[in-house]
Design brief:
Structural class: mainly alpha
Strand content: under 5%
Shape: elongated
CATH class of the largest domain: Mainly Alpha
Radius of gyration: 19 Å
Number of strands: 0
Length: 196
Amino acid sequence: MKQDTRELILKESFKLFTEKRYEQVTVSDLERATKLTRGAIFYYMKNKEHLFVEVLDKYMLNRVAPQLSNGQMTLASYIDLFIDQLVKSKKQMSALGVKNMNFAFANITNQALYYYPEFAKLLKEKSDEERNNWVNILQQAVKSGEVVDTIDVEAIADLFQHVYTGFDTCGIMLDEGIALKETHRAFDSIYNLIKK
């Protein structure tokens, strides 16, 4: 029961923080959204700042990057896995009532840079982890002969990551968020240029 209440507070707070600026989210908003009293909310969370950090940790920093499977994955299957993970994220956000996850994440990230001093560093670590995954899968693809061995692995890893970042950013302006078919098509185009 306690875990359910805590999850409810985090979920409803996440939605509020994605829709409004940090300063605009009031305790009254939290009470209305959660249908809990102020005392109940702050039984689980020390204060609003603590709540905001918990929300960011759960919904932004604990998002899992697609994982490589012991050298057995091809670049083509990693691309599919990456897109599948985005599909799941969109569905999860939709289930939470967040229509455009890209807008939501951009809004909350902007606030986090002001109210969560370590957030930029932690987000950079997540970005570096994602880039390292691209580097590793590309190295495997070269080694297995899936792609040509003349590619600059680091540059292609950057290309995949920057193409995704571009679609992710453009998704802020689209009603439904990131255009997944177009993202997948762009990834496949890069793949087709480097495959053997």
